[in-house]
Amino acid sequence: MWKTILRRVVLMIPQVLILSIIVFILGAMMPGDALTGLIDPTISADQIEAMRVQLGLNKSWPERYIDWMGGALQGDFGRSWAHRMPVTQIISQRIGPTLWLSLLTVIITYGIALPLGLLSGRFQNSFFDRSVNVYNFVTYSVPTFVLGLLFIWLFGYTLGWFPTRGTVGSGIQPGTLEYIGSRLYHMILPAFTMGVLSTTGIIQYLRTGVVDAKTQDYVRTARSKGVPMSKIYTRHIFRNSMLPIAQSMGYTLTGLISGAVITEQIFTYQGMGQLFISSITGRDFTVMTTLVLLFGAMTLLGTLLSDIIMIFVDPRIRIN
Predict the structure, then answer these.
(1) 259, 299 contact by CB (below 8 A)
(2) Sign of the torsion formed by the C-alpha atoms of 165, 166, 167 and 169
(3) Please, which residues bridge with residue 85 across strands?
(4) Euclidean distance between CA atoms 3 and 260, whole angstroms
(5) What values do phi and psi take at 207, rounded to 5?
(6) Is 195 a residue whose pLDDT tops 70?
(7) Contact, 193 vs 104, CB < 8 A?
(8) pLDDT tens track for 108-160
(9) DSSP assignment of 74-92
(10) Which pLDDT score, from 0 to 100, does residue 85 have?
């Protein structure tokens, strides 16, 4: 198994390299550059050209890519033209809030989806099953920004239960319990928004898995032997129905990091998603390229993680 994992990791290197070239070309094709909109109208054309030469913006994209990749291999992804600091420093400041938000989202997602999916399949065609289907239909059709704005209006402005923006309250000393509590308090509403919308696929997979498993031969055999239905469900049906969920768990964990772009923007949450949007609107190519590369690498890592999880949960799978 370890040889397989090592081989998959080695195969990820050319994939990430190709991805970096594509992202860099797309970034170079965007109109404008980092100086667009930041130049004072009183600055002369010679001064603007001198700044472009200093930043290396007058070079061709292959030259800029080689310079950028040479630094990236040494852990230097360049400097942000908008934030005036190294890209790695900006990302290190933003990745923590996004990871904590993603972790809380995963907990909420599986906390809602697992019981609803399993019980919906268990009591097929009941009132509960039909209610879950309606819930699935609504959460599948509602866009993220619509549900986010609805929750802001309902839980933020109308009921006043949660803050509607920001990552932490103002004037709180970092490292204190009050600071940690404020961070958690600000995460609940955006995490709940993403968690609710992420339950749709999991519920549907689980429900379909339970319904299919009820007709399998091993279930009929267990019933013919007089095994109680509660034991058949807990030891056989539910366990086998979880396999598709385990297969997609790697994608879910890594995909939430890049999937928080819209939610973080709506709730003004200072994470990776909001940084990605601001890097695009500000023509901050070094930040944008690094983030897209990071999101792509996380997707490849999610594929590998899903395969590893399946090896442990399904003994029938053996990767040669």
Answers:
(1) no
(2) negative
(3) 80
(4) 34
(5) -60, -50
(6) yes
(7) no
(8) 988 998 889 888 888 888 899 899 999 988 888 888 888 888 998 998 888 88
(9) TT---EETTTTEEHHHHHH
(10) 83
